[in-house]
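The data layer described in this paper is built around a simple, fixed record for each protein. We quote a single record here, exactly as it is kept in our systems:
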Amino acid sequence: MTSAHAEPLPTSTAWYVPLARAIPALALAIVVTFSADHSARLGLVTLASFTLVAGAVLVTASVISPHKGVSRNLWITQGVVTVATAIAAFVATGGGQAYFVFLLTAFAAITGFIELYLGLRSRGRDASSRDWVFVGALTALLALIVLLVPPGFSQPYTGPDGIDRELTASIVVVGLLGAYWAILGVYLVIAAFSLKWSNKDHDSVAAAVQQKED
């Protein structure tokens, strides 16, 4: 049984790292929500924008981190894969639905499982482990759900304004991506401030212990 006065777990991640990852996710969730264009081109442009910023944050945070070892190498790998996704999306924004789905699922599957593994590997040793498990599982789940959308899906429907419209695979996939960013962004904002407050608690406990020993 854990004592009510147990020392908070240390963290290898600065609180502003998840916040920096949250900002582009929330911004692009808004873009997708209010955009009438849910084409594969929009999906590739927004995916490129998100992965460029998120990848840069991960690589920078990993390189300057004083922590060494397997976890740091995996974070760098995840960052490099994320930046590579941005480059692949930017150079072929007109690649079409098949290319968009391939790139999105490859990115989500690889980075999702890396982050999920890092979270499970760090359980009980790092205060951020639960956040990594959630984000990794959410990202891997995105890859699975996107793969389940039939490539040629097309469903005509009549909107509330009486105008005939068509729900296509690209609309569904871009919508799923927007929903993913909304959930991810909100969660990472909460995680960032939880880490900030946790770090303050950790410092307070450490100071109290040091004072008691003195």
User: Anything to note?
Assistant: The helical segments are 16-34, 40-64, 70-90, 96-121, 129-147, 169-213.
